[in-house]
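Appendix B, Record 12. Input sequence as logged:
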Amino acid sequence: MRVKANNIGIKLRLHQQKIWWLNHVLFFLAIIVLSLLSISDYHKNLLLEKGGIENRQLLFVNPFSDCKGDVGFDTKELVSFKQHMEGFIKEGVKANIIKSSAVYFKDLNNCSWFSINEREKFSPGSLLKVPLLTGYLKKAETDPQLFKKRVQFVRDEEFVDSQYIKPVKEIEIGKTYTIEELLYRAIVYSDNKAARQLFYLDNGTSFFKAFNDILLHHNIKLEQHVSINVRDYAEFFTALYNASYLNRDMANSALKLLAEVDFKKGLVAGIPANVRIAHKFGEWGTGQDVEFHDCGIIYYPQHSYLLCVMAKGENEENLIKNAQDISGLTYQYV
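Logged structural output:
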């Protein structure tokens, strides 16, 4: 009986030791989990406080932004600024500088926003290179080798060069380029040949998927001429800034590339040279019936904002100047 009791006592002590160790392990695991959560919250708050552009790697996106849609509020200052902007546009129409213009503005800190003439539709032209870029980056998320694939550029019999703003560099017939190089040239130099090569490489699949995924109410087909209003187009930049469609690295890469665009008129000319901007311009038409648009994220220190300007008129230089002036007015307001 005594031996049996001793065995029971030993088993009881071993069981108590197991419970003691288990409790301590669980305690330390809880400490580790809480610490990790605290670190995560700290970094999230840090990104929010700094507008999402001070992160060591993700300099161009803010995935923690609450500005997922147009849910901001109107302030007296914003209402006053919108009225001032409407007056400026009316004066431009009256002076025959422009026929019409639409504007979309969003403060990416507090989500306040406004739009002017948001229902008017425009021919986006090279603005469509942004969903083209987005579509290829989306595909690359599951195909990392996509960027390194090589394509030979052959003569495009259907290509008609109608660009008023000529690219500094264009791809050349007979030469071979990687997908990455074509994307760079299509965005940075706005090379239409590179963009067409990318579009027809997969019969527009990447472009249409990104376009229709981000703008759910659209369902465009290959044969359709695309027209869009300023508020809808701004969604492409909102999706990149929030990293809501692409993953963070890809969204950041897209905006980083858009920050290298070599066109220095329009929105860029309306802000100081040391302020970073990720943008894309577009143009459409010839003769006395032309359009010019410019849309992008201006990384004003600690106060990023989104601005899109679209305009129609008879003189493209006037339309470019219109975008510059609106950009300058907006920067002064912010």
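DSSP finds nine helices and nine strands in the chain.
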